[in-house]
C-alpha cells in the first residue's frame, strides 16, 4: 500500500508537502498540488483512517445501542440516525442489546474501547440505571433517546408523550365518545406513563368516567394488544373507543376484535400512537398520533455533535411535538 513517502519520492517533493496537499492544511501551488494528486491517484493511495483519527483524536464514528423489538418504530428512528451520520461524514456502529442489561453494559464497554466519538442510547433497560463505565470516560458525550430519568448526565431526546396522550383522547371525545378505555405500555417506563397521564387528563377534563375495567397495562408489542383486548372483553361490555398507546398494540387489538366479530370502527373505535409506516395500510387505516421518528434520530445526532464541539455545556432535553393523523379507525358518533 502506497504511503506519503512513496508519493513524495515519485513527485519529487517533500513528505510534508504531500501531507499539506492531501489534508489541505496549507497553501501549495496549483502546479505542485496537481502533480501530487496525480501521483497519489496512480499509486492508488488511500489515507489511513486510523492514523488520521490518532492525529485528530477523533474517529468520526458514533456508537448506538438499541433494544431489539418487532416494532418498526425503532427501525424508523435508526434510519434517521444513520442518514444524519452519513450527511455529517460520520460512521455508525449499531449494537442490539435484546433487552439484556449485561449485554447492554458489555456493548457500551466495547464501543468505548473502539474510541467512538460519542454514544446514542435507545434502551428501555437504561431507565433508572447507573452505568459506572461512563465515570471512566467523562469526555465521551452521551445522548439518550425516548426514555425516562437517568442516573448519569446526558443529553436527552424525547417526544412530548403527555401532550400526545392528551391529544389522542381529546380527539376521541371530540368525535362524541363518552366511554373510552386505554391500553397502556409498561407503566414503569416514563413514556408509557406520560401517555396514560395524558389520557387521564383529557377524560377528567371532559367530566367522563375512568372505568378501571377499561384500563389494561401491556407491553408495546402486537401480542400485548391482542391479550389486552381479550382481558378487557372478559371484564364485561367494551367501551365505544380505545386509546392504545402504540400502533403495534393497536394492530393486535384490531386483529383480536376481528376474530370475535367486533367491527372496527363501527362497534369499537381504535386510536394508536407512533404512526409507524404500516399504520396507513392496516384495515381500517389507523388513526394515530404521529411521533417524528426520523426527526428524533436526526436530533440525536445533531445534539451529540454539538456536545462534541462544546464539551462544557450543560445537558439539555430536546422535546419534539406529536401531531394527530386522522384515518379510518375512529367513528364519529352523531
TrEMBL record:
<dbReference type="GO" id="GO:0000976">
    <property type="term" value="F:transcription cis-regulatory region binding"/>
</dbReference>
<dbReference type="InterPro" id="IPR057343">
    <property type="entry name" value="PurR_sensor_dom"/>
</dbReference>
<protein>
    <recommendedName>
        <fullName>Ribose operon repressor</fullName>
    </recommendedName>
</protein>
<dbReference type="InterPro" id="IPR000843">
    <property type="entry name" value="HTH_LacI"/>
</dbReference>
<dbReference type="InterPro" id="IPR046335">
    <property type="entry name" value="LacI/GalR-like_sensor"/>
</dbReference>
<dbReference type="InterPro" id="IPR028082">
    <property type="entry name" value="Peripla_BP_I"/>
</dbReference>
<keyword id="KW-0238">DNA-binding</keyword>
<keyword id="KW-0805">Transcription regulation</keyword>
<dbReference type="Pfam" id="PF13377">
    <property type="entry name" value="Peripla_BP_3"/>
</dbReference>
<dbReference type="InterPro" id="IPR010982">
    <property type="entry name" value="Lambda_DNA-bd_dom_sf"/>
</dbReference>
<dbReference type="GO" id="GO:0003700">
    <property type="term" value="F:DNA-binding transcription factor activity"/>
</dbReference>
<dbReference type="Pfam" id="PF00356">
    <property type="entry name" value="LacI"/>
</dbReference>
<keyword id="KW-0804">Transcription</keyword>
<keyword id="KW-0678">Repressor</keyword>
<feature type="domain" description="HTH lacI-type">
    <location>
        <begin position="2"/>
        <end position="56"/>
    </location>
</feature>
